[in-house]
Amino acid sequence: MMEKKSPHILNASSNLLGFSLIIITSLKITKISEHTHLDEFAGVSCLLFAFSCFFSFLAIRTKSERRENKYETIADYLFLIALFCIVLAVIIVTVKIID
Asked: Where does the sequence pass through the membrane (predicted)?
């Protein structure tokens, strides 16, 4: 049987959710996002990390192994997509700072 990933997904998603919220807050303060899609990428990543947290929590708490695997898979894919969005946001910030 495979090792359960849900606790790791929950931990990483909640941490990166906080990171994404810090990015959005700093964008609003510095007004960097006015000519980029940076706040959209950060906002989408916030939502995806939040849903990833939700599904990984459900996977931890459910008694059904079939549902646990389903929730864990959903959380895993949401985490991956959110990670891609946050990486795009970091790349945009880096390019904006360099310019």
From this structure: 12-29, 41-62, 74-98
Distance in angstroms (rounded) separating the CA atoms of residues 6 and 69:
9
For residue 69 the two structure tokens come to 């695997």
Mean pLDDT by 10 residues, the chain (99 residues): 80 92 83 75 92 96 94 96 90 82
Neighbour-count burial of 89, counting CB atoms closer than 10 A to its CB (0-12 exposed, 13-18 middle, 19+ buried) = buried
DSSP, res 1: -
pTM tops 0.70: yes
Buried b (16+ CB within 10 A) or exposed e, 16-36: bbebbbebbeebeeeebbeee
Burial 57-74 (b: 16+ CB within 10 A, else e): bbbbebeeeeebeebbeb
